[in-house]
Specification:
The protein is an all-alpha fold and 165 residues long. The chain has two domains: 66 residues, no CATH class; 91 residues, no CATH class. 72% of the residues lie in helices and 0% in strands. The protein has eight helices and no strands. α2 runs antiparallel to α3, α6 packs antiparallel against α7 and α6 runs parallel beside α8. The protein is globular and about 55 Å long.
């Protein structure tokens, strides 16, 4: 049970998220004396839940926290930078995607590259004032896509790319 909790917590960490938790799950299974004790299907379920758990909070509160802190003495500069970066990035994404904004969000979250994931995609959706339900469906789809891609890479033996030997 502690191994499932371990990958659940890893999936909640920004920038690491599902992309780091799945290779860890494969590593845990490979290192176990009795690999049948750790089911990769249930690990995927736990990882997806862990990755998605912070998403509604990010959507509804991250932008508000940044706007609250933009005029604070110590954190204001960084918070302003985050707001400007998010606004500019959102405008670029919207200009390029046009009507396919939700598909673009799904692909952005789903392609397992550094800086793309549920956290970043949800923050972008919040900055763009996108519909919550449609955004969440796109993020869930992106998390599923990333899970498939990372899982296939790990199965093919590319786990070392993700830090697993």
């Amino acid at each position: 049970m502690k191994n499932y909790l371990y990958v659940f917590l890893i999936a909640m960490v920004p920038l690491i998220e599902l992309r780091g938790a799945i290779p860890v799950a494969y590593g845990i299974k490979a290192a176990m004396a009795n690999p049948e004790e750790f089911n990769l299907f249930w690990a995927y379920v736990v990882i997806a839940i862990g990755n998605m758990l912070p998403v509604p909070f990010i959507f509804f509160f991250a932008r508000r926290v940044l706007e609250w802190g933009k005029d604070k003495k110590v954190i204001g500069g960084f918070f302003n930078w985050c707001l400007e970066k998010g606004h500019k990035g959102g405008e670029k994404l919207q200009a390029k995607a046009g009507r396919g904004l939700y598909v673009a969000l799904l692909l952005f979250v789903g392609i397992p590259l550094p800086g793309t994931g549920a956290w970043t995609g949800t923050l972008a959706a919040s900055f763009l004032d996108m519909d919550f339900k449609k955004s969440m469906l796109a993020v869930v789809g992106g998390v599923a896509l990333a899970g498939v891609i990372v899982g296939v890479l790990c199965t093919l033996g590319f786990g070392a790319i993700f830090g697993i030997s």
